TrEMBL record:
It holds the Pfam family PA28_C. The lineage of its organism: Eukaryota, Metazoa, Chordata, Craniata, Vertebrata. The keyword Cell membrane does not apply. Residues 13-132 form the Proteasome activator PA28 C-terminal domain. This is Proteasome activator subunit 1. The keyword Flavoprotein does not apply. Belongs to the PA28 family. Transmembrane segments: none annotated.
Length: 135
């Protein structure tokens, strides 16, 4: 456990379980984002020629491209949420260190860790769903 020297009531350690899951999830998000970018680039260079009366291929490709774009937006929202957690936890730890007599600050740190754990489960489930989605 990585624990800095902390206030008299004890340091607030890094939550190793959450950090490990966070690292793995960030890697999965990064991999998925790269794959979506590659797919998006490939689709853009494969645009079929628009012909009179038969634009079905173009319409299908536009719909798929829209789906890929929406998925990439969702993945970017996951990245933003994970970055927000680090900032919020850092603020809560700083408050707990500054006011060690206020137990609610220490409790807040643990609540943030629990919240992120649940969020990571949802994010990983959604990543799995993105890979297996067949729409």
């Amino acid at each position: 456990m990585r624990c800095p020297s902390g206030p008299p009531c004890g340091p607030i350690c890094t939550n190793e379980a959450v950090e490990s899951l966070l690292k793995t999830t960030k890697a999965e998000i990064s991999t998925l984002k790269e794959k979506l970018n590659t797919l998006s680039s490939w689709m853009q260079i494969q645009v079929p020629k628009v012909e009179d009366g038969n634009n079905f291929g173009v319409a299908v490709q536009e719909k798929v491209f829209e789906h890929v774009t929406n998925t990439r937006t969702k993945i970017e929202a996951f990245q933003t949420a994970l970055a927000k957690y680090s900032n919020e936890r850092g603020d809560a730890v700083a408050k707990a260190a500054k006011s060690p007599h206020v137990g609610d600050y220490r409790s807040l740190v643990h609540q943030l860790d629990q919240y992120l754990y649940c969020e990571l489960r949802l994010i990983v489930t959604e990543i799995r769903n993105i890979y297996v989605r067949n729409e």
